[in-house]
Amino acid sequence: MMTYVALYRTWRPQRFDEVVGQIHVSKTLKNAIINNRIAHAYLFTGPRGTGKTSSAKILAKAVNCLNIMDGEPCDQCVNCLAINQGNFLDVLEIDAASNRGIDEIRDIRDKVKFAPSQGKCKVYIIDEVHMLTSEAFNALLKTLEEPPSNILFILATTEPQKIPPTILSRCQRFDFRKISDQEIKNHLAEIAHQGQITITESALTTIARKASGGMRDGISILDQCIAFAGKDIEDSHVEMVLGILAEEQIFTIVKGLFSKDITTVIMKLNEYIQSGKDIKQIIRDLIEYSRQLLIYKVSNNEELLTMSKDMIEQVKNEISSIPLECLGKITTKLAEVEKEMRFSSQPQVLLEAALVEIALPEKPDSLPEKSKVQVAPKIKAPKKQGKNQEQSQEQKIVRENHELNFQEIQRLWPEVLEEIKNEKITIHAFLIPAVPEGIKDGYLELSFKQGYNFHRNKILEPANKELVEKIFTKVTGMAVKIKAVSEETSESSKETKNNPVVQRALELFGGDIVEIKD
Ligand SMILES: [Zn+2]
C-alpha cells in the first residue's frame, strides 16, 4: 500500500534558496556560512508557517554538510541525507511545549560537554521556545553564557515577547515575515504544475488569501482541495473545503453597502449563513475586501489587490462611483463590529445591525424641536376600540401622577419597539438585546445583554436616546427618561426575563430583518 505524504512535507524547502518570502534571513545565513561566522545561538521569530523550522533544519545541514556550496547544503552527502531522514545524532529537535521537552533542556547542560559524535557541529533546535518554564530558561541561559564550541542553538517562536531578555540578548535574532499572498500564490501554482493538477487562478487567489501569510497553511489547503476534488480544482471546490464565500458573493454584499441597497445586503447575508458559511469568516472577508478597495482607491495600483483578475476588472469598473469617505467609514465600522463579535453570543444580530446602519442613508434628525424641552406629553389616540380604550384611561392616570409605572412600561414595550422600528429601523436593531429592567432614580433602566456594548453605546448617542424617549412618551404617555445599562451593572431584578410580558416582547423582537438565535 502506498503511503500518502502530505504536500507540505514533500515541498518542505531543503535549501535556503527554496525558502519563500524570507530572503533577508536566507541571505544573511548563507553569508554567515560562507564566511564561517556562525553565531552560537539564533532566535527565529515570526507567524506560524513562515519557514522558521525549515530554515533551522537547513542551517543545521549547512553547518554539518561535507560539500557546502555557496553557503547552501549539498543535500547529497551522508550528513545532509541523515539530517533529512531525521536520524543524525548531532541534530536534536526539542518541542518546548511537551513535558519531555523540559527534561531534555535540563539534560542539555550535561550533554553539551561532549563533542559532536557524528558531524561537525551539534545543533539543538528548540521549537516553541516561549513555552519553557523559568527553570528551564535558567538552565538554557547557563549554557548560553558559556557556550561550548561546536554547539549551535536555534530557538524558534511565534511569541518572542515571552522570551526573557537575558536569553534574547544572547541570540542573533531573525524576524520571519508573513509571506505575501502573491508569493504564496506563485508557489502553490508551481506545486500544482509539478503535480499535474489544474486549478483556476481565482481558486489559487482564494487559497492564498485564506493562508494569511503562512505557506504551510496554504499548502495544506491545496492538499485538502486535491483530496476533495482530485486533479481538477475549481473555485467551488475551494469554497466548499474552506466554508467561505466566493469573491462574487462578498462583492455583492460590499456593493449593496455602497449603493445603500439594504434589502440585498440582508437577504444575501442570510442566504450565505443558511448555506453554512461561517459568520466570522464572512465579516473578515468583508473587511478585507473593503480594505483592499480603500487601498486601490487611494493608490490606483492594482498590484496591491489580492483578487482574481476577473474581480479586479469588476473593481476597476465600480471604484469610481464609490466615495473615498464612504469606503473609509465602512472599513472602520466593519472592523469595530468584528472586534465586538468576538465576545458576542449573537454575532449574526450584531453583524446585521451594523450592516443596516452602514447601508441606511443617514436621516436628518427627525425630532421636532419641541420634544427637546420637557413638556406634558400628548396622549396617543387609541388605534382600536375596547382594550385600547382602557389603556388610554390608564395612561391618563399615570400622566397625572407624573410617575413612571414600570408594569405599564413593560406591557407597552413591544409597542414601543414597533413604533421605533417605523421611525428608524437602525435604532430598533440596536434595541434588540435590551429589556426594560426597572425604574431607578426616576430613570427607566434598559438593560443590554453582556457583549452588546456596541448597541448600548449607540442608544446612548444623544439623538438616538432622545428618539427612544420621545417614542416611549408617545406610546406610554409617561415622560420617560432612559438609562442604558449593561446586564451585569443593572440593579433591577433578573426575574424580569421570566416575566410573561417580556417574553411576549422577545417574541415580537424578530420583526422582518432580524432573527434571535439562542
Ligand atoms: Zn551535504
Commentary on this structure:
The structure is a single chain. With 518 residues, the protein is of the alpha/beta class. The protein has 4 domains: 7-175, P-loop containing nucleotide triphosphate hydrolases (Rossmann fold); 181-242, Helicase, Ruva Protein, domain 3 (Orthogonal Bundle); 250-359, Zinc Finger, Delta Prime, domain 3; 379-509, no CATH class. Helix content is 53%, strand content 9%. It has helices at residues 7-10, 23-34, 52-64, 78-85, 99-111, 134-145, 165-168, 181-194, 201-211, 215-229, 235-242, 247-258, 262-274, 279-299, 309-318, 324-341, 347-359, 387-401, 406-423, 425-431, 453-460, 462-476, 500-509, and strands spanning 41-45, 91-95, 122-127, 151-157, 172-175, 198-199, 232-233, 434-440, 443-448, 482-486. Helix 8 (181-194) crosses helix 9, helix 9 (201-211) runs parallel beside helix 11 and helix 12 (247-258) runs antiparallel to helix 13. It is elongated, with a radius of gyration of 31 Å. The two termini are 49 Å apart. The model is unreliable at 365-401 and 493-518 (pLDDT under 50).
Summarize the structure.
The chain is an alpha/beta fold and 518 residues long.
